[in-house]
Amino acid sequence: MLFIKSLDSKLSIAFMQSTSMDPFIVLVICLSCLILLFLWKQSYVKGKLPPGPTPLPIFGNVLQINTKDISKSLSKLAKDYGPVFTVYFGMKPTVVLHGYEAVKEALTGQNEEFSGRGSMPVFDKVAQGLGIVFSNGEMWKQTRRFSLTVLRNMGMGKNTIEDRIQEEALCLVEALRKTNASPCDPTFLLGCAPCNVICSIIFQSRFEYSDKKLITLLHYTHENLRISSTPWITLYNAFPSLIHYLPGSHNELFKNIAGQQKFILEKIKEHQESLDLNNPRDFIDYFLIKMEKEKHNKQSEFTMDNLITTIWDVFSAGIETTSTTLRYGLLLLMKHPEVAGKVREEIDCVVGRHRSPSMQDRNRMPYTDAVVHEIQRYIDLVPNSLPHATTQDIKFREYLIPKGTEILTSLTSVLHDDKEFPNPEQFDPGHFLDESGNFKKSDYFMAFSAGKRVCVGEGLARMELFLLLTNILQHFTLKPLVDPKDIDTTPIASGITSVPPFYELCFIPV
To answer: Where in the cell is the protein located (predicted)?
Structure first.
């Protein structure tokens, strides 16, 4: 404390003398004081936090981390510092959990203590502490609980949702058939089906694939995924006060999100005009009814702003994760035609050609089930999950982690664990099959994360991936435009998410 008082007095003296000093000298003195303060805080906190690479003043460890592939950089650091270590993104300490044991111990063993949401300034600016994904405390608990209840009421995990997905799968098949086996980029069409499934839940409506609104919404969604996984956004999150006022792709991200929210608000207004308090039709109606019931409660978390943000959360996460996994999945199946052939054989044997696949079929299709899991494991869609935060001071192993400390859970280190998945860098459905060819569950499969922050839409996503993929392979052979050996499956970006390369293929009817 004596150090702080001394530093405060020096800053005060520097300020008082600034009128008679050269501005450059004042800047140097202030910057030096800030660096001294940072070094003091860092040394003070370091005694409590796990070890890690020595951070630079202001910049932290950002210059030591490859912002194009953060996950790989963290894996290298784990070899030096072990499964629990600290890195600094700017002046912000972040505890990294690397490996199955550390991740499981935190997310399931101490799930309440690690259930906070860490700061992501680029999205915090949009969410403002509302919604499901980027909220904390009572706001998060009530909104998440309410959303899960509504989704279950509307059939998530039940036949009603399955029927909607099957109907949309047939629409997707018809759209793919209209490509006439010509080369096409599947990005847009593979986004249409998940988008319409989500829209049917939130808005009780779907779009024709030629609808301009659908085209615009999917453009926003795909662009947001690409932008949010770039090194620029990593820098924004590390230095928001500086980067925010600079020109850059973050401005395009904010513009896209504003466009999405404008569309959402229009839909809400339509619902308000036709709302029947006794007959909710979709997610928006349920939320509006809840708002009406709590309109006299000034502390209510159910507000118009929270509704907009919650829908944006569900809408964005529900579309992009599923469509990106499908797009990556088709690329992998073209790279490995023998795998696609075995899936098609299983579909022919169990389902046939004259009816649509159902979730009941999955239990009799162990190889297909293994392929879907292996696609998710291999692509490692969200390498480090979204940042968590400690909700209280906690002791984790031999370390004392203060309340509010950011936590990064390396899902890559779990999904690519070479003890659980031999040759993890290879695409091999055998990772989820036993010696008899039966499907084999794995506790290491954390594609949807784990604990209290596990993906709200996990059940829906699992349904969509299985039903949409099997419908596509039931009706088409996937023909690449290059030799399968020459197909590159390396992501073009690996930040918040892994973004697959763009490609074209031909859907050949069978």
So the answer is: Endoplasmic reticulum membrane; Microsome membrane
CA 340, CA 322: separation in Å to the nearest integer? 19
Please state the length of the chain.
Answer: 510
d(CA 120, CA 406): 10
Report the C-alpha gap between 380 and 74 in whole angstroms. Answer: 15
Do residues 424 and 99 touch, judged by C-beta distance below 8 A? no
Assigned token pair, 4: 């702080």
Name residue 302's amino acid. Answer: F
Dist CA 472 CA 347 (whole Å): 11
Torsion sign (Cα): 281, 159, 449, 188: negative
Distance, in Å, from the CA atom of 157 to the CA atom of 459, rounded to the nearest integer, reads: 6
- Asked if 500 and 427 count as a contact pair (C-beta separation under 8 A), the reply is no
According to DSSP, the β-strands at 92-98 and 406-410 are parallel
Q: Which of 329, 264, 320 is nearest to 496 (CA)?
A: 320
Alpha carbon distances (Å) from 266 to 240, 269, 272, 292, 308: 31, 5, 10, 19, 10
- Give the model's confidence band at 38: pLDDT under 50 very low, under 70 low, under 90 confident, else very high: low
pLDDT tens readout for residues 241-268? 999 999 999 999 999 999 999 999 999 9
pLDDT in tens, 310-322: 999 998 888 989 9
Terminal-residue alpha carbon distance, the chain: 76
Give the separation between CA 297 and CA 25, rounded to whole angstroms. 55
Q: What is the pTM of this model?
A: 0.89
Q: What is the pLDDT of residues 338-396, one digit of tens each?
A: 999 999 999 999 999 889 999 999 999 999 999 999 999 999 999 999 999 999 999 99
Measured torsion, CA atoms of residues 24, 25, 26, 30, in degrees rounded to the nearest 10:
100
Q: What share of the chain is helix, strand, coil (3-state, %, to 5)?
A: 55, 10, 35
| Separation of alpha carbons 275 and 268, rounded Å | 10
Closest-CA residue to 357 (of 349, 201, 155, 198): 349
Question: Rounded to an integer, what distance in angstroms lies between the CA atom of residue 5 and that of residue 2?
Answer: 5
What gap in Å lies between CA 502 and CA 498, rounded to an integer?
13
| Dist. CA 343–CA 510, nearest whole Å | 14
- Strand partners of residue 395: 400
> Is-contact 378 67, C-beta < 8 A?
no
C-beta atoms surrounding 287 within 10 Å: 25
Count of Cβ atoms closer than 10 Å to residue 508 Cβ: 11
Beta bridge partners of 56: 60
Q: Identify the sign of the CA torsion 358, 457, 421, 65.
A: positive
Which residues lie across from 96 on neighbouring strands? 85, 408
Number of Cα atoms under 13 Å in the Cβ half of residue 380: 28
